[in-house]
Amino acid sequence: MSLFGLGSFGEGFVTGFATEANEALKNSVKRINTRVDKLKDFQVQRAIKEQDKRAGEVEEHKEALQQAYALFDGDANAEQAIAYAGGLLKERGGLAAFKEKISELQKAKDNGTNIFNYFERAKTDAPYNATLDDIANAAVGDRPTTATDYRLPKGMGDDSSLVGTILGKKIDVVGRATEQASQEIGALYGASVDQLVSLPTITFKSEDFSLSSKTPAEILDYANKKLATPSVRDNTEAVTRYEAMRDAQEKAVVATKDQQAMLNIVNAQINRLPLDQKGTDVESNLLKQRQEIKDSIKLTSLDGDPVGTLEHQKTIALRTAVAEARTSGKPVDMTAVEALTEKINTLSGVVKTEAEEVADDREALNVRTDQNYTGLDRIDTSTPEGKAQYEKEINLINAREAVLNQNASPKAINARDVTFFEKSILEALADAKDTFSNTLDLNTKSAWNRITNKITNAKDPIAQLERLEKEDPESVRIYREVELARDNLRPNFITNYLKGYDRKLNPEVFSAAANLGYVAPEDQAAVSETVSSGQDASAQTVSALGGDLSTDDTATTEEAIPVRQPPLEDPAKEIANLESMRLQFPKTVDGASAILKGVSSQGGKSEDVYNAAFDLHGDKQFATTVEYIASKSNSGIESLEKEIAEMSLRGLNANQITQQLKQVKYRGDTSMDVQSISSTVSKVLSQINPQSREDKIASRKRNEEAIAAKLKLANSTPPSLSLPSGLMSKR
Predict the structure, then answer these.
(1) Which alpha helices (H) appear in 259-353, and where do they start and end?
(2) In contact, 448 and 479? CB cutoff 8 Å
(3) Residue 41 and residue 145 in one domain
(4) Residue 700 pairs with which residues in a beta bridge?
(5) pLDDT at residue 15, as a whole number
């Protein structure tokens, strides 16, 4: 019978087909085997590479463990050394950190440190029977042993062969390759998986070890920084630990006699005083201690400078005399100060008088404004900025001269004494600012300190502050508020400072104040006469403040407080003159008081107060606040409201005002709780809001217009004797 019943032709066709198919099948089988071999080789080579890599890692771990073994005295106690080595590797979490710590421990050991004091071993790990090899292998991890552990690239196992088509299924090329690869890998590395040991558990006192090489001052700084972090502050146990560390190190630092470190400690103790100890002997003693340390540091730095040493001793003598005067209520006794002054003059020779200094400064200013002068400090009076700068400096010189002319003492004022008192005033002012800062609440003080520390040593503090403002706008806002409040202490402080001195006996003190831009009230008239020449500020503003800059001697009082004047023909001159006025009437409590006094002397009203303040500074908030202060008396609740408004001028926010009133003014007064004070503060701050003022004015205007309309209607319509239509029916 013919093949498949196809006859001779079909038989031949099939025979021919079978021959060609046989060759194709052979080629397909060959390709399959080739692919299997390639996949197998890939897996084997990858396994070799991975195994070699692991072996290298194991060896690297072992070398580090051997160093640790020697570090932990392995020859003397091998079991403990192995346990400590493995435990430290586990505790560090990686080889790099492990090796770094080994190096640190080795240096400490070489320097005589007993490193075993910083380790505690888990009792469950003793005895520990593993070897360093075991630990190294365990640290690296399991060893891959089969081909399935080595992943093939995607698509390498796809099959579309003729054999698969004929058989009706894909050939498992990957399975065959993996099977063969597993056999070869097993032959190379063994088929069994190593039993990995568990690494031992130890406690390494990392913090204690890190601090062991630090000085007491460094450990103290570390403890203070830890106490400042939120994570520690929120953890009672951590707070207790670091407070104990801080207290112990403060004692240790004191024992070192390091003056700067001691100063830092006293400052820290002052800063963390609780509110109930503010103003007590505890704070007074700390402040005294701080000043003594600062004086000692200063005197040490002046060693070899006899004049400088005497000058600082003079500063100390003055400070002591001022303190005694405050206690006794008597004028400052300058006996000790004057004795030291004589010694200084003897050593340093003749010095200029203050009058000579003023003359020199005037001449120097004239040189700086000369067209031919090329120095970097040249003032170009052809520009508005230059004119303003010139007016500012010449007004200050004139003010100094006016104070000198007012000097009723036969004593010639020594320029060195003036400089001395300038420094003394500024030093005392700095202490007053620090005292104020200590009254701030913890959050405000922390934010202020944080920003202050970051800009103090910056190359460009202004740029640094701008950068910080982008990163932490809230802290910078608080910083600016505190700094403004600190700056606003200056006028009142100098006023109170001068009260302790007799004008005839110590005129140099008053000259020093003038050099710092402050003029005593008794000198104000003379200064005004000196500095007013050529000024063209707003007639309304000047007159309202009690000045008289008009060249027309016939001007009346009614003409002195007119409506606002049009701009001057010379804007630059106006700017300069306004700058001068701003120096006399600054945006401070004292400046507000001066404005009120000036306006009151001219019979001005509250609106004149507002206009004068606004004309000077262009600040609605300031003008509104001054106007509000003018409306309040010095008795009852109005006295408190006035004080709150003045505190706002010093830059304090609602919370700061509330806290200061409670802690100072109403301290111990149970009738004035925080809630009632806060309510009054909120009321005042809302009333000195410029928008609130404008709303009131608008409302008053609407009422006036309504009344005027009713009056006009009543005057234009004659009264009717008959009742309006419908009125009877409504009744």
Answers:
(1) 259-271, 281-301, 306-328, 335-348
(2) yes
(3) yes
(4) none
(5) 47
Comparing C-alpha atoms, which of 292, 274, 223 is closest to residue 253?
223
Domain boundary among 204, 220, 254: 204
**The predicted structure's pLDDT at residue 675:** 75
Exposure letters 629-655 (e unless 16+ CB within 10 A, then b):
bbebeeeeeeebbbbbbbbbbbbbbee
Tell me what the pLDDT averaged over the chain comes to: 75
| Alpha carbon distance 543, 545 (integer Å) | 5
> DSSP class of residue 263?
H
Q: Is 180 found in the same domain as 88?
A: yes
Q: What angle do CA 721, 722, 723 make, to 5 degrees?
A: 125
Residues 584 and 546 in one domain: yes
Has residue 358 been placed in a domain? Answer: no
Residue 316, in any domain of the structure: no
Q: Residue 379 burial by CB count (10 A; 0-12/13-18/19+): exposed, middle or buried?
A: buried
Integer Cα distance of 586 and 616 in angstroms: 9
Residues 621 and 673 in one domain: no
Is residue 179 domain-shared with residue 193, that is, in the same domain? yes
**What is the rounded CA–CA span in Å between residue 179 and residue 701?**
100
Residue bearing tokens 């407080």: 561
Q: Return the bridge partners of 204, or none.
A: 119
The pLDDT tens digits for 96-121 are 888 888 888 888 888 888 888 888 87
Cα 167–173–179 angle (5° rounding)? Answer: 125
Tally of structural domains, the chain: 3
Residues 546 and 693 in one domain: no
Mean pLDDT per 10-residue interval, the chain, length 731 residues: 40 46 64 72 76 83 87 84 85 86 87 85 69 82 58 54 51 66 65 64 81 82 83 85 86 82 83 78 86 89 87 88 83 85 78 81 87 85 86 84 76 81 87 81 82 82 85 88 84 84 83 82 68 43 44 32 36 50 78 83 77 83 89 80 87 81 73 77 86 79 62 46 35 31
Tell me the per-residue pLDDT of 131-145, one tens digit each, with 9 for 90 and over. 888 888 888 777 665
Dihedral angle computed from the Cα positions of residues 529, 531, 536 and 540, in that order, rounded to the nearest 10 degrees:
-60
Report if residue 348 sits inside a domain.
no
Residue 239 CA to residue 226 CA, distance in Å, equals 9
**Within-domain flag for 218:** no
Lookup: tokens for 665: 């003014």
Percent of residues, the chain, with pLDDT higher than 90: 0
Which of 684, 597, 676 has the alpha carbon at shortest distance from 646? 684
Range of the domain at 191: 3-204
Which of residues 161, 177, 204 is at a domain's end?
Answer: 204
The answer to whether the beta carbons of residues 211 and 242 sit under 8 Å apart is no
**Are residues 696 and 578 both part of a single domain?**
no
Three-class SS state of 121: strand
CA 197 to chain centre: 52
Residue 541 confidence (pLDDT): 47
- Residue 637, CA distances (Å) to 204, 383, 470, 625 in order: 64, 50, 41, 17
Q: Which residues pair with 202 in a beta bridge?
A: 121
- Decide if 561 contacts 604 (C-beta within 8 A): yes
Dist. CA 558–CA 376, nearest whole Å:
47
Q: Under a CB-based contact definition with an 8 Å cutoff, are residues 242 and 227 in contact?
A: yes
Report field, pTM of the whole predicted structure over 0.70: no
H or E element, residue 169: none
21 and 157 inside one domain = yes
Angle at 652 (CA atoms; ends 609, 649), nearest 5 degrees: 15
Measured in residues, the chain has a length of 731
